[in-house]
Design brief:
Elements (H helix, E strand, L loop, with lengths): L5 E2 L2 E2 L8 H15 L2 H13 L7 E3 L1 H7 L3 E6 L9 H15 L3 E6 L3 H13 L2 E7 H6 L1 H9 L3 E5 L6 H14 L4 E3 L10 H9 L1 H14 L5 E5 L4 H7 L8 E9 L16 E6 L2 E6 L23 H8 L3 E7 H15 L5 H13 L8 E6 L7 H7 L3 H17 L1
Parallel strand pairs: 4-14, 5-6, 5-8, 6-7, 9-10, 9-14, 10-13
Antiparallel strand pairs: 1-2, 3-4, 11-12
Helix pairs in contact: 2-4, 4-5, 4-9, 5-7, 9-11, 10-11, 13-14
Length: 410
């Protein structure tokens, strides 16, 4: 990152004047933390004692045998506290909030995992907490909303626009502008104005810091490829960072939705529908029309339907260091089903996108090679969406029965 927050042509900090002082304070505290070894040690301590790190690297032997190619390893971020990689970032930002002396945090969330992690961090550190979440995502991620509220967070359904992640981000920025003295915006992904992309990636890099040691211990050498789903890009940057200077191929998997050719997707870097633009404080590839208006997106996974992508990933894509592919909703459900049946592991719908591409490519590699799939989260949060997608009759009966029960008691 250069001194203006750019990664090549991407990034920057396009912010209103009212936020300049707040961003200067944040950049100053972040720079001090980067230069202070005791900060990282404090961060590692809380992640080990509170968030159950290091997360395991699991050899998926049954899947490896099934495909008959590379040895498949799964980096188990689902076993991180709150069930996803999101805790890595929020705990780090929580330590920065303490240093800045602020008492309130706000966040945006799509799949609910970042909101869940932020609410958890706020409870741990004693901060007031408000979470902005698109109304559509509130409905399809109701279990996470329930837990956020039970931990004391205020969840605000955003009813503007498409009522999904991009609209939640807009609303969170409005809040921040109004409450800059008391409030820190815990940005959830490696997007937004500098220093957020680099800062979030730094905290998430704990994933690849662990994985690069684990794979060499278990397999004896570095993996041929690493696969990670890509919404904004935080779990992908976490999985890729410590492998950037190696020969390992890095593969990001975006949401193909109903198929890129249909226009109902959220593929920015592997399709042809995205163009360079500036929005939400930074420059990247956005799904937008010729007038710069953001397009509607679609994904079965609530955490992948964002219109933009990390400026760091845009730079790595432009430099051809990361290859990008897309997985359709149909492929995602098939990969999820196979993983559950073969390994007894339930990936989140977001993570399942990475499994799709890994399964396509594993048979093309030899059995003495390894690949890593970054399982960014677990699928418990997706039970309503998954059961609906599988058209499970017993689940329908259960929901209908509970609905009747609630109606009779009201």
């Amino acid at each position: 990152m250069d001194n203006k927050g750019f990664f090549g042509d991407w990034g920057g900090a396009y912010i209103p004047e009212v936020l300049h002082q707040t961003f200067e304070e944040l950049k100053k505290e972040y720079a001090k933390a980067r230069q202070d070894p005791s900060f990282w040690q404090e961060y590692l301590h809380i992640m080990r004692t509170y968030s159950c790190r290091p997360t395991p690297l699991t050899h998926a032997k049954n899947l490896s045998d099934h495909f008959g190619g590379a040895q498949i390893y799964i980096k188990r971020e689902d076993l991180n506290h709150t069930g996803a990689h999101k805790a890595n970032n929020v705990m780090g930002q929580g330590l920065l909030v303490q240093r800045m002396g602020k008492k309130r945090v706000i966040a945006e969330t799509g799949a609910g995992q970042h909101g869940m992690a932020t609410a958890t961090m706020a409870a741990k550190f004693g901060f007031d907490c408000t979470i902005y979440m698109g109304e559509v995502d509130v409905m399809r991620q109701r279990p996470n909303v329930f837990w956020m509220e039970k931990m004391g967070a205020t969840v605000v359904p955003v009813k503007d626009g498409s009522r999904t992640l991009k609209d939640a981000i807009n609303e969170a920025f409005r809040d921040w502008v109004t409450n800059i003295d008391s409030t820190h915006y815990v940005f959830g992904t490696a997007c937004g104005p500098a220093p957020f992309p680099e800062m979030v990636s730094w905290f998430q890099s704990i994933i690849s810091q662990e994985a690069i040691e684990q794979i060499q211990e278990y397999h004896g050498k570095l993996p041929a490829r690493i696969y990670a789903c890509v919404g904004g890009g935080s779990n992908a940057m976490g999985a890729f960072t410590h492998f950037l200077d190696t020969d390992t191929e890095l593969v990001g998997v975006e949401a193909g939705g109903h198929g890129i050719e249909t226009g109902q997707h959220a593929a920015r870097l592997c399709g042809k529908d995205a163009t360079p633009g500036v929005a939400q404080g930074y420059k990247t590839m956005f799904l937008q029309d010729d007038d710069g208006q953001m397009l509607e997106t679609h994904s079965v996974a609530a955490g992948l339907d964002y219109v933009g992508v990390s400026p760091i990933l845009a730079d790595l894509w432009e430099k051809k260091r990361v290859r990008f592919e897309a997985a359709t909703d149909k492929e995602v459900m098939a990969a999820l089903d196979l993983t559950m049946k073969k390994e007894g592991i339930i990936p989140a719908l977001e993570s399942s996108h990475a499994f799709v591409q890994a399964f396509k490519e594993a048979p093309t590699l030899s059995s003495d090679e390894a690949i890593i799939i970054n399982m960014s989260g677990r699928g418990d949060k997706d039970i309503f969406t998954i059961a609906h997608a599988f058209d499970d009759p017993s689940w329908k009966e259960f929901i209908i029965a509970r609905g009747k029960e609630y109606s009779s008691n009201s």
